[in-house]
Every structure is written in C-alpha cells, then in structure tokens.
C-alpha cells in the first residue's frame, strides 16, 4: 500500500493523522483489493475480488504478532483502525482481533471503517460490537444510484443493507458514524438527498460525515461537488460535518503542516521519507520543514542505518 511506512510490517500501516480519529494506526486484513463493492470513487483502484465470502484472508496470528510488536512499545496513537485494501468485515476473525486489542491494549481506541454492507448478518454485527467507533458508508438512497456509485456484488440488495444498519444501531451503543460520499451529477439531487436523509433518520447515527472526491478515484470521469454545496447539504441533513482531509496533497501548509509533522514524530521516530508518505507531500519539502523544526529546537534527529530519524525528546529526559 502507498501509505505503508518502511516499517517491515505487512498488515500495519501509518500511523496517519486523521481529523476524525486523531493519530491512527491502520490494520489491513485483506489482500488488495477485496471488497463487497467496487465504488467509482475508491482510492484503492478497481475491486479485483468482488465477493461476499467471509474467511480468514490473512493469518490472524501474524496480524496479532505485528500488533504486539508495535503496541508493546507504547506508541502515542489514538486509534487502531481496521481499514485498508477492501472491506474489513470480510475477515472472519475481525472480532477476535478487536477483543485482543481491547483486552491487551485497553488504552487504545478501536475503529472499524466499513462499507456496512455485511451488517445484516448477525455474526458480523456481533464481531464489531466491541469497537469504539464503527464508521459505515451510505452513498445512495435508491437502487439506481447504489448500482451506479457502489457497483455492488450481484447478491447485495440496498434494502437489506439499510435494514442491517438499522438493526446494528439497535444493539450497538458505542459511536456509529455514517459517511456520505457525494458525487456530482449522481447523488447530489434533491430526490436522492431526501432518500438518504430518511434513511439516516432510521439509522440514527451519532455523526454524519460528508465527503467528495479530492484525489484520483477509480473512475477518472467523476467530479467533486463544491465545498459550499457540501456545507448546505450538511445543514439539510442536520448535524452532518464536512470532511476536510488533513493528508491531502497540497492542502497542508503553514501552521497545520508544522503541527502534523510534530504530532507524527512525537508518537514515533520517523524518517523524512516516512513523513512524506504519511502526509502525502514531497520528500524534499518534508526534509526542509523537518530541518527547520530541528533548528528551532522543536524536534531533534539522529542518524541510524536506515537513515536520519526525527523525533521529539520526552519531557522527562
Ligand atoms: S467500499 Fe471502500 S474499499 Fe470497497 S470499493 Fe468502496 S471505497 Fe473501495
């Protein structure tokens, strides 16, 4: 995966700064790219394995071993997040992994970023119940747009998925968030937005996030909607929030960039290459910013065989 650090880990990536989840360590439970949907805006490319088969796609013991290795160092991260190259609830042992994290590393919050298409299945619901945050997607209120935007597996039905979300809300007492991805010309009309609003009323999520394309998706023809339009939809859907990505290329600058760099190296020593991947910015620019922060005494650096690592000295030292 592009955003994987040169850490030698196969199933972990990041940590990445996220406005919604703070500093988040990603866990990728699927081979690229395995999903129940093939969304036109997906940043991971076309779904090669469009499936509803729930199984152990990657060895759960190896994932646990990487988590132990990383988390036993006590990194300052906020969330461990199941996401990555596809739909994490397709992995049969996601529940074991969540329980493992909650028992062994209770200081870290756990999030599952899912498209929600399998939550009609009582076993899948039970598996994610212990997560602190479950974020599901809802991009369509009609069958037509579900097919056009999400290009689902042939056996998925939107009505069943919506019933699954409503049923999940009834038994899930932690944070349920819904992300609505708006695609210009498809789900940005009054009729579709009204249908989405009606579904949200039934699902009763704790938060609604609105997003639009701001980097290359699977299909090059899709266009973003204006930020002002997203803001007006946020008002219409009540209490929805517009997602501003902190890691989008070219969007972090000035004070924000300084804060992201400091908060990233505070949690874990990183090379300039690590940071540039996490923040999606040019490596030379990253190095310039890092050296400036060193000159100001805000961070420090050390040469190691893998390169120069930047970090923040603990206040106790
Ligand atoms: S559900 Fe997520 S991973 Fe699957 S195709 Fe859609 S955007 Fe990509």
The total count of helices amounts to 10
Helix percentage: 25-40%
State the fourth-level CATH superfamily of the largest domain. Answer: Aldolase class I
CATH architecture of the largest domain: Alpha-Beta Barrel
pLDDT average, as an integer? 87
Spatial extent as radius of gyration: 20 Å
Largest sheet: 8 strands, mixed
Instruction: Give the class-level CATH name of the largest domain.
Output: Alpha Beta
Separation, N- and C-terminal Cα atoms:
36 Å
Query: Order of strands in the sheet with the most strands?
Result: 1-2-5-6-7-8-9-10
Task: Give the ordered list of helices and strands.
Answer: EEEEHEHEHEHHEHEHEHHHEE
Bound molecules: iron/sulfur cluster
Q: Which residues form runs of ≥5 with pLDDT under 50? A: 1-6, 246-251
CATH topology call of the largest domain: TIM Barrel
Shape: globular
- Kindly give the count of domains: 2
Strand-residue fraction? 15-25%
How does this model look, in words?
- The chain has 317 residues and is α/β, with parallel strands linked by helices.
- It has 2 domains: 12-242, Aldolase class I (TIM Barrel), CATH 3.20.20.70; 254-311, Arc Repressor Mutant, subunit A, CATH 1.10.10.10.
- Helices cover 35% and strands 18% of the residues.
- The chain has 10 helices and 12 strands.
- The protein has helices spanning 60-71, 94-104, 122-128, 143-150, 158-171, 190-203, 227-236, 254-267, 272-279, 283-295; strands at residues 12-18, 22-27, 34-35, 49-50, 79-82, 109-113, 133-137, 175-182, 207-212, 240-242, 300-304, 307-311.
- The strands form 3 sheets. The chain has an 8-stranded mixed β-sheet with strand order 1-2-5-6-7-8-9-10.
- Helix 1 packs parallel to helix 2 (94-104).
- The radius of gyration is 20 Å and the shape is globular.
């Amino acid at each position: 995966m592009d955003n994987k650090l040169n850490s030698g880990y196969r199933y972990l990536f990041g940590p990445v700064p996220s406005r919604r989840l703070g500093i988040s360590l990603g866990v990728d439970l699927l081979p690229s790219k395995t999903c129940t949907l093939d969304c036109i805006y997906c940043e991971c490319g076309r779904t090669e394995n469009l499936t509803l088969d729930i199984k152990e796609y990657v060895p759960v013991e190896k994932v646990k071993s990487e988590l132990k290795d990383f988390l036993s160092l006590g990194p300052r991260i906020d969330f461990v997040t199941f996401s990555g190259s596809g739909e994490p609830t397709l992995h049969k042992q996601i529940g074991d992994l969540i329980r493992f994290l909650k028992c062994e590393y209770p200081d870290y919050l756990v999030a599952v970023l899912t498209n929600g298409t399998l939550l009609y299945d009582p076993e899948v619901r039970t598996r994610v119940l212990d997560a602190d945050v479950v974020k599901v997607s809802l991009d369509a209120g009609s069958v037509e747009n579900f097919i056009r935007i999400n290009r689902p597996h042939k056996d998925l039905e939107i009505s069943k998925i919506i019933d699954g979300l409503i049923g999940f809300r009834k038994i899930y007492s932690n944070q349920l968030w819904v992300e609505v991805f708006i695609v210009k010309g498809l789900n940005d009309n009054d009729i579709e937005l009204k249908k989405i609003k009606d579904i949200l009323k039934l699902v009763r999520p704790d938060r609604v996030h609105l997003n639009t394309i701001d980097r290359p998706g699977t299909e090059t023809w899709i266009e973003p909607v204006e930020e002002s339009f997203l803001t007006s939809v946020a008002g219409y859907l009540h209490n929805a929030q517009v997602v501003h990505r902190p890691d989008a290329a070219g969007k972090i600058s000035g004070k924000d960039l300084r804060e992201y760099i400091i908060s990233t190296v505070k949690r874990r020593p990183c090379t300039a290459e690590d940071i540039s991947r996490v923040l999606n910015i040019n490596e030379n620019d990253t190095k310039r910013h890092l050296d400036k922060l060193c000159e100001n005494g805000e961070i420090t650096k050390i040469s190691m065989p893998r390169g120069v690592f930047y970090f923040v000295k603990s206040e106790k030292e």
